[in-house]
Amino acid sequence: HGRVFTEIDAIVAKIDSKNIVEDITLPTESEYVSRAILYWSSDKKNIISNLGKVNRPATADEIVTMTLSVEIDSEIKKKDYKFTVLMTGEDGELKVIFYNYLNEEITSYIIEAGEKAYIPDSINTDIERFDFQGWYNSEDREDAFDFNKAITSTAKIYGSWFLDYSTYYNGYYKNQNLEGLINNELKNQLNVRLNSGYTKVSYGDARYVLEKSDVDLTNKDKLWGIYNSLLLSNVWNGDTMNREHVWPCARLGTSRPNNSTKAISSDLHNLRIIQPSINSKRSDLYFVDSKGDARIISEGASFYPGDEHKGDVARILFYMATMYSSLTLVNEKDIPNKQAYTPENAYMGDLAALLKWHVEDPVDEFEIQRNNVLFQHQKNRNPYIDYPELVDMIWKYYVA
């Protein structure tokens, strides 16, 4: 079944599923599994029939779910595919829709068929730290939209903005082929940037880097402990402080580090000064949403990092999942409980909570200070601190 669905996924991906204006050809047999029987069922047969015949609606676009059933040796499995059928327009009326760089709708309006689309005054293309590139006629943003041409069907117009990677941070992100990318493509290219020039620091030496990076903003003689905000000595003392792995060491997919280790478990961006008692309490628990002070939410399972620390935690985990392709962020229901220190356990979350925390607890001066100090030693940066916009540009895709 999996082989067939992968095959059909590739075929359906070639259909412009968000802009259906004519009949679609739905595969009814498998090239690779000859004994598979395929049949389709539409939830709106008046719009798309079970055979793919399209009857465009008059007054509004319609989203149609086509369910593919695959029967192999009397066992049936199903998968849904969604198609948006564009309206023809009642009495000659057509819809014009504008989208931002995240493919989210900005605004829309109705005009008469045969008229030309126009850019509403309400659209502001001036976004801080972004350079506007123009309007395009599809999500791939290859062909510019022609505002001089009369429209005859629903018009979907996609704006393109490039995040300005060249002006900031002494060119660290400049000339890295990041412009115009979103979603998985942007994450993959950031992975290349973060690993280029990366200098590994030993787990032992990390203690002394944290003495500089985790200095409290208001009391320079103290270090700001994660989760409970306890102020600790600015001179390393193993009896009163630990190195916290925000992405738990047991979920990194490798063995425990020792002081000579230079590996994923010694990455400075993932290490924070912490009081030993709360370090033990947090253990290797994954994160979930709540409010107030840091605490265990579900014994042996989940932990809330506290209102003051949740945004910092989110951006550290986003960094780790970008820096290391072996790590995966997922929603709580998908977090496995496998053997510690194995690749099968290299998952963290809750991803939906992390996205929420990034907004509720934005980047602050402490994080900026840490990022700059760690860059001096490790020669790479946390891009989600430098460019908070990247969180939406990448991680909303994974939630979806």
Descriptive overview:
The chain has helices at residues 2-13, 183-195, 203-213, 276-282, 310-323, 351-360, 365-378, 383-386, 389-399; strands at residues 37-42, 62-72, 75-85, 93-99, 105-112, 130-136, 155-163, 222-224, 231-233, 242-245, 271-274, 286-287, 295-298, 302-304, 328-329, 347-348. The protein is globular and about 75 Å long. A four-stranded mixed β-sheet has the order 5-4-7-6, with no helix packed on it. Strands 1-2-3 form a three-stranded antiparallel β-sheet, covered by helices on one side. Strands 12-14-13 form a three-stranded mixed β-sheet, with no helix packed on it. The protein is 24% helix and 22% strand. With 400 residues, it is α+β, with helices and mostly antiparallel strands.
Topology:
Elements: H1 2-13, E1 37-42, E2 62-72, E3 75-85, E4 93-99, E5 105-112, E6 130-136, E7 155-163, H2 183-195, H3 203-213, E8 222-224, E9 231-233, E10 242-245, E11 271-274, H4 276-282, E12 286-287, E13 295-298, E14 302-304, H5 310-323, E15 328-329, E16 347-348, H6 351-360, H7 365-378, H8 383-386, H9 389-399
Parallel strand pairs: 4-7, 12-14, 15-16
Antiparallel strand pairs: 1-2, 2-3, 4-5, 6-7, 8-9, 10-11, 13-14
